Amino acid sequence: MKPVYRMECAHPPFRAILSLAALALLGTFLIMPPASADLLDTSECRSVRVGLTNRSFPNVDQREALAAMQLWSRELARGMGIKSETKTIIYSRNEDLVAAVNKGELTIVSLPALDYLKIRRKVHMSPALVSIGASGYKSRYLLVTRRDSGIRTFHDLRGKSLVMASSNVQSPASLWLSVFLLKEGNRDQTRFFREVKESLSPSKALMKVFFRKSDVALLSRGAFETSIALNPQLGNQMAIMSESGNLVGVITCITDNVSSNLRRSIENAAMHLHENSIGKQMCTLFQMDRVVPFQASYLSGLEELLRERDRLLAMRARKR
After folding, report:
1. pLDDT at residue 318 is higher than 50
2. Which residue has the higher pLDDT, 276 or 237?
3. Close Cβ partners of 141 (under 8 Å, ≥ 6 residues apart)
4. Could you tell me if 175 and 220 lie in one domain?
5. Rounded alpha-carbon distances, angstroms, from residue 207 to 63, 152, 176, 212, 214
6. What is the pLDDT at residue 284?
């Protein structure tokens, strides 16, 4: 039986849009230099161009997202203390983003780590920043059911209904689920689950399981623990069926044409972001603890998952 797809539709509030836009623009805000500002070449800062992919903030109206980004751009110029032309560009294709970076048209790029892995060998930029949540346990993903559902193993999920946040549809969470299915001999989730539904947020997805409107929810451990903290009853009623390894989400890159002084200023500001009032507000919006410099090991979970997916697909192809 072909599964039914459903998606909740609602106009997200501007605060939510601002949060998503700010997450993608984290690198932009971090250019606000501390005491070392006088060491920067002001000509280099006169034009700061930020590139994003539309997958950095799914299900958000791009016009409103751009408006939110402009607010951060003005804050950027104020913090730098100079007149700076700041422009943000949203790319729908990775190919266009790569071309812009390689032509020297961008300063900072925020994009999903999965997209970066696809283009890293042909683009002149390198990862610089991630949030502590992205490099720690909060980036783990869970399959969660009700304790009294009778679902104990993966095989028990066949023919059941799955719900996930819309933002997880093309994310590490979706990749992890795909590999999970392949290991059990099922390539297509649409043939395994009776119904696949999308929810506006992880908390809403979890509540659908709680109220028995869906059988299993796919969400991050961070979102799960936040929901339990707000509603302890969930902790008594919900059970974790499976958990992924660490899978980084969005990363911020700096292009190779940026000077070492400016790059150091960005990274230094990032490490102290959580120490001032504005930074604390940003951390609250991003649901993170603080920002840390990127390390290559942060990508290892995704790289391993991609290798496992390719291996399993190759095995299936040989059996045909």
Report:
1. yes
2. 237
3. 168, 172, 173, 176, 177, 218, 219, 220, 221, 243, 244, 247
4. yes
5. 30, 19, 22, 8, 9
6. 61
3-state DSSP assignment of residue 187: coil
What pLDDT is stored for residue 107 in this prediction?
A: 87
Pairing, β 161-165 against β 195-199: parallel
* 1 within a domain of the structure (yes/no): no
Domain containing residue 181: 141-243
State yes or no: pLDDT of 81 exceeds 70: no
What's the pLDDT tens digit per position in 204-215? Answer: 999 999 999 999
Distances from the Cα of 69 to the Cαs of 26, 33, 51, 76, 283, in angstroms? 10, 19, 11, 10, 16
Alpha carbon distance 41, 37 (integer Å): 9
Residue position matching structure tokens 């099922």:
186
Q: How far apart are the first and last CA of the chain?
A: 23
In the chain, how many domains are there? 2
Amino acid identity, position 125: M
Strands in 166-318 per DSSP E: 195-199, 216-220, 238-243, 250-255, 291-293
Q: Find tokens 């959580």 and name the residue.
A: 274
